[in-house]
Amino acid sequence: MSGVSLLVQPVWLILLPLVGSIMVFLLASRRAAVGVAVVAGNLALVAGSIGRLGITGPWQHSVGGWGAPLGIDLYLDGLSATMLAMTALVSLGISAYSAAYFSAAAARHFWPLWLLLLTAMNALFLSRDLFNLYVTLELVGIAAVALTAMRGQREALVAAMRYLLTTLLGSMSYLLGVALLYHSTGSVDMVLVGEAPIPASVAAAAFALMAVGLLLKTALFPFHFWLPGAHSSASAPVSAALSALVVKVGFYILLRLWIEVFPALGDGVAWLLGILGGVAVLWGSLQAILQQRAKMLVAYSTVAQLGYFFLALPLVAAGGSRVWGAIVLLVIAHALAKAAMFMAAGNLLAFAGHDRIRDLDRVVQRMPLTAAALGLAGVSIMGLPPSGGFSGKWLLLQASLEQGNWPIALVLLLGGVLAAVYVFKLLEHIFTSGTPLGEPRAVARTMEWAPLMLAIGAIVLGFLATTTLDFLIIGEPFVPGRRDDY
Amino acid sequence: MIISPAFSSTLPLALVASSLLPGLIIFALAEESVRLRTALNLLGALSKLLLVALMLWGVYHDAAFETRFELLPGLPLILRADALSLLFITLSAQLWFLTTIYAVGYLEESPHRSRFFGFFSLCVTATVGVAMAGNLLTFILFYEMLTLSTYPLVVHRGTPVARRAGEAYLLYTVLGGVLLLLGAVWLYTLTGTLEFRPQGIVSDLDVGDHKALIIIFVLLMGGLGVKAALLPLHGWLPKAMVAPAPVSALLHAVAVVKAGAFGIVRVVYDIFGIQFAATLGVMMPLAWLASATIIYGSVRALFQDDLKRRLAYSTVSQVSYIALGVALVGPIASVGGLVHLVHQGLMKITLFFCAGNLAETLGIHRISEMNGVARRMPWTMAAFTVASLGMIGVPPVAGFISKWYLGLGAMEVGADWVLLVLAGSSALNALYFLPILYRAWFLEPEGDWPQERHYPRAETSLALLIPPVITASLALAAGLLASVPFSPQEWAKLVVVREFLDP
Questions:
Q1: What is the pLDDT of residues B5-17, one digit of tens each?
Q2: pTM of the model
Q3: Which pLDDT belongs to residue A430?
């Protein structure tokens, strides 16, 4: 440790946004400037960690010098670093957008909660023990609910309440599973629990409880009921954060559990989740096609896109880290593209005063940058090349055909077609030449550039697929068991 | 010829950049900056022509131009220039230059020109990428980019009709893209490579895989057939007529249908290998399908009164000559198919330019309004006449060369029925083109033109008049000077020698 700069300790990734959150809470003005600076600093810290990961490999840090089982250990491997990087990048885009979006009054609520959310997500990606994951998961949930409720309108409050109940129920269910495992193994460390002998019935019950809890939070069909309302009624940057980042957190924990704690899960579970994922892809896409409002369309698109992560689970047993890598690529691509889409939809709403799709005439002339953001993000969501969405889908399609798994291949293809239908439902109206209704209000330039940059990121990811996949497997996150080189 | 490696790997990139960069800059330009936009457009088009000329010289002397970049694990993005790519690139670079001039004149004073020319440049970029793709992954990448960049051009006018045409276009092309993707990934799981190689990449596969290969062939042809407007996948093409004339010209002559036809040639030659494809038994069905499309398109064209729709069905028919020439599996027929890639482009772009001139200058959209129009617009109608005669196959216009080689090639491989298809199609071509020429040259005008505009220097604006006159002359020259080095015919022979006889 001695040779390593003090600043690339992972603990700073938690401390910086936490301190920032308290600071913006206490500050009387300039909250946005401080907030953006903190998020930019977070990105720099993540970049430092990535640099170190590339040089020294994965590592573990015992906070305050206390190691497990007493203290808190932070771990960093290729997967956690990738998730941190995704979060840092998307957060920076959302923060730049928010700085222009919120009034001073709203900023007072937004920035402390937003930085708290970032703190919780960073801590979650650095944790590798079941109880810490619970704590951070709960924090993420509470911050997210508070952000959803922030707008204070009736619609938002109802959606936030529903979201709150769902997320609490989810954490509860997850915690019960943790308790069962702790009772049986005497540990909450993921690797120790995974190596300990657990009676099959306990393991099954624990997995079921934890999985249901996480699926509720990740909004996998049929647990998606809360998502469209919450994601569409929140203010635009919050919608972006919820859809791009918060729902991924549950999936990330499930992925870690799948690999480390329950490596012996049978094909049945994989298939069950795979089928639910497939239904989510089709159902979410059909719902998106039927929506009349832009934000609802984008929210249902999230339901569909989340389905892909689960759809691929039956392939991981035979496909191994390549399939996991493809899934993570899709996770990142979706984060970038969906954040861009929600912010672009927010621009439409702010500009026109409504987001009824059929009245979005001539937007492309009046807000070309926003239209470009929608278009480029749409390319990745549809899975067209070159984009992160395309690379991920290609690899999954390849894996499913190699394994002769035609149902998954067909859902992948059909999902792409349906996505094209809803993306172009949105895009075709921005090219129409009707007379716009009402007096448009100008939108700040940063609010146009932020989604465009993220959408370009989703495209660029298509060119960085190989690099990302190579980076991802540093520290072998997709192989179960203790790694001695930490 | 010795070329430094750095040069040979940057040239393909430069060729892509020569239209991509101007396009991206043009998006950012204000609507009013007409001069800067036009300058950028022409600069891009001219530098592309220059680069293509360099490349032509290099490839003729067996130089290799290639750039690689790892896009997916084990699957690179490859841009490479070989004789076949250059056949297509040269066509698109020349016609892009002329279409740019035409579009500048055509869209004068109309709204959203920055958007139009931005996507226009992206469209040409995609075409060049399709032409230089060194493997199927790269091909798909640019093929989809072509779909996305032409969509805004099709719906450019923003009317409900344009929007519906755009929907039809997307419906066909997105579904086609899915077939192509499935075929490509499936193929990759069998072969472990998607690289285009002379004689193909599948001939070593086990006999047990042949059934899968046939399905893959059908999938790939389905995906490519949409853009090439093969029966029954042609439905989008006549609808897309609502687009502005330069877009139709581009769609029909250079970019979209040609990308499909070119893809068919690539897949047959460099994925399956023509001999192997013949032993798989997939070439005869393709020849029948192409023949059916040729006849069907011509018959439908007969019954259209809308000039652009008649031309659109004529495209459906004519583009399938390319597939037919390839599908006959003989070197002579292949020359006919390949050379038609260029010839049809020259002739069809002339026809669409002329149709655009009639609409812009006189407000004429229907054939029944064309009585005596040649008196008012002799140059336009002269160009139109040359191109129509070429389409019919009258010597010495370029179309005759295509049909000649196709006919000879068919007899060489013993497919004499193709002569009937060619004769029938030529008769139908004559039936739907000659009445137009008769009306235009020999009938009296019926009173005033629907919407006449006057231009001081010629029958129409010079930017609209010069491009069709040049393309018609090129179509004539390609026929008259068919045996001169670097003519389309000679280059097609070079392709066939390299791909077919002596790979």
A1: 777 888 999 999 9
A2: 0.94
A3: 78
Closest to A11 in 3D by CA, of A3, A26, A1: A1
User: Residue B45 class from Cβ within 10 Å (0-12 exposed, 13-18 middle, 19+ buried)?
Assistant: buried
Q: Locate the chain A residue with the closest alpha carbon to B143.
A: A385
Report whether B265 contacts B102 (CB < 8 A): no
| pLDDT of the residue at A7 | 58
- Same domain, yes or no, for A38 and A181? no
Q: Number of folded domains in chain A?
A: 3
A466 to chain B, minimum CA–CA distance in Å? 5
Residues A365 and A230 both lie in one domain: no
- Same-domain pairing of A409 and A283: yes
Say whether residue B73 is in contact with chain A using an 8 A CB cutoff.
yes
**CB B443: neighbour CB atoms within 10 A?**
14
Q: Same domain, yes or no, for A67 and A158?
A: no
Is A292 within the bounds of a domain?
yes
A165 and A249 part of one domain = yes
Question: How many beta carbons lie within 10 A of that of residue B497, not counting itself?
Answer: 14
**How much is the ipTM here?**
0.92
Same domain, A164 and A187: yes
Q: Which of residues A235, A265, A295 is at a domain's end? A: A265
User: Chain A interface residues facing chain B, Cβ-Cβ under 8 Å?
Assistant: 322, 362, 364-365, 368, 372, 375, 379, 384-386, 391, 394-395, 397-398, 401-402, 409, 413, 416-417, 420, 424, 428, 431-433, 462-463, 465-466, 469
Q: Which residue has the higher pLDDT, A141 or B454?
A: A141
* A436 vs B136 pLDDT, higher one: B136
Residue A380 counted as domain residue: yes
Q: Which residue range is the domain that position A176 belongs to?
A: 128-265
How far is the C-alpha of A353 from the C-alpha of A370, rounded, in Å? 15
- The answer on A227 and A288 residing in a single domain is no
Tell me the average confidence (pLDDT) per consecutive run of 10 residues in chain A, 486 residues long: 58 93 89 94 94 84 68 86 97 96 90 96 93 94 93 86 94 95 89 86 93 94 89 92 95 94 85 96 96 93 96 90 94 97 92 82 78 94 94 96 95 96 89 69 88 97 94 88 56
Residue A69's pLDDT is: 61
Q: Identify whether A27 is part of a domain.
A: yes
B356 and A CB contact within 8 Å = no
**Are B406 and B325 within 8 A, CB to CB?**
yes
Q: Which of B142, B133, B140, B152 is nearest to B180 (CA)?
A: B140
B299 shares contact with chain A (CB less than 8 Å):
no
Contact check, Cβ <8 Å, B178/A417: yes
Is residue A478, in this structure, part of any structural domain at all?
A: no
Residue A340 and residue A309 share a domain: yes
The H or E element containing residue A323 is helix A321-352
What backbone phi and psi angles, to 5 degrees, belong to A389? -60, -40
Which of A126, A152, A173 terminates a domain? The answer is A126
